[in-house]
Structures are given as C-alpha cells and as structure tokens.
Amino acid sequence: MPRELAIMACTECKRRNYTTTRNKRTQTNRFEMTKYCPNERRRTVHKEVK
To answer: Rounded to whole angstroms, how far apart are CA atoms 48 and 5?
Structure first.
C-alpha cells in the first residue's frame, strides 16, 4: 500500500498532536504543515516525526 500513517508534532511544544496519511511514492521527505496547537493556543508549524 503506498499510503502510510504520519504523526505530526508541534515545533514549539514538541507534543504529538495530529495524525495524517501521506503517499510514500510522491512525498519521500518529511513534510511540515501549519496546524492549530491546543497547548500553545495558536497556529504553529507541525513537522512529521517517526
């Protein structure tokens, strides 16, 4: 299966807040998104962690 589970962690507080899926064939590098962090109470950059 080409899709895999990706766990997103906040760059500010380092907590793992979100999970999403990504296509392993098209996105080979770890990606980052701007998501709402409930601990920081604002939108922060979330990066993929393993």
So the answer is: 10
Task: Identify which of 46, 45, 48 has the alpha carbon closest to the alpha carbon of residue 21.
Answer: 48
Domains of the chain: 3-49 (2.20.28.120)
Q: What is the pLDDT of residues 1-23, one digit of tens each?
A: 789 999 999 999 999 999 999 99
Tens of pLDDT, residues 28-46: 899 899 999 999 999 999 9
Paired tokens of 50: 């393993």
Verdict on whether the full-model pTM lies above 0.70: yes
What is the Cα–Cα distance from 36 to 29, expressed in whole angstroms? Answer: 22
